[in-house]
Amino acid sequence: MNAPRITVLMPAHNAARTIADAARSVLAQTWSDFELLVVDDASTDETTTILESLADPRLRVRRAAERLKLAGALNLGMREARGEFIARMDADDISHPTRLAKQLAFLEQHPDVGLCGTAIRTFGDGSSERLDYPRMPEQVRAFALFNCPFAHPTVMFRKTVFLKHSLFYDVSYYPTEDYELWERVLRIVRGANLPDVCLRYRRHAASMTGSDWPEMDRQAARIQARMLDRLGLPCDEPSASRHRAWAAGRIEPSIDALREAESWLRRIVETNRDARLFDPSALADVVSERWFTLAMRCAPAGESIRKCFAASPLSGRGIRRIRRIATLAASIVRRSRGATA
Fold it and tell me: Which residue ranges make up each domain of the chain?
């Protein structure tokens, strides 16, 4: 039996409520040369029965005898995948029918790219939001210094590259195992994102518990500190935590806090001019976007924020800079009127 071009790798733990729709969205792809490998992570509900009822020869189920959790299940699946390419998929999301065809075509046309994600649209919590990710490889690498550059369940990658370099998920980085893996991957291969929305991403209350969010911040700070160290800006734990907060757009709305953030962002850009760890133009764009976000968060502090933003070289040039200053000024006015109403 010939190996399929693509293995769609789907871990599942007690996913009876959603797995049928998720699996059917894969089995209905316009590209048909694939296997759907489901790693049943010791489910105790009807997940196994539902998978058996689908009765499609392209569906292969590997049942774990004990709970592996997400990273462990994915590592098992990566080793057992038969495809040349591995496409991630979660048991509660929906892939668009042309997803595999589009990503495969892109990777075939760009042999220097090792992994490819896509834009997503959220559903399931009463709202629908389109989320885009950096597209070009230089933008992807620079963006990774501040946030995860891929929507995890959209990624397709070349299996041989990952196995050759032992690029597996590190379970000690829960719940940011994917972000940690991409940071290592992007040192070796180029990554990109398609502008197309190729996956509907389900949001629901059970996806993250309250205790997971602080741990996600802590682990993301570890990953970012590792990149900063490679850049030539080693930082202690408090500094890494501040970088993580600013990367996530969290800042005290004050002029002093904004100036502190500006000083750090300028230091990153200036250090990279010599280190060249990131493409300077791509990093400047990413930093400029972070700077604008932080200034908008500080808008309640008043007119001093607009002056600080406008005076900074991080604010960009041309029409984009003018539009950002105008947007910030309007936000300051609205907040001022609201405070005096």
Answer: 6-207, 249-340
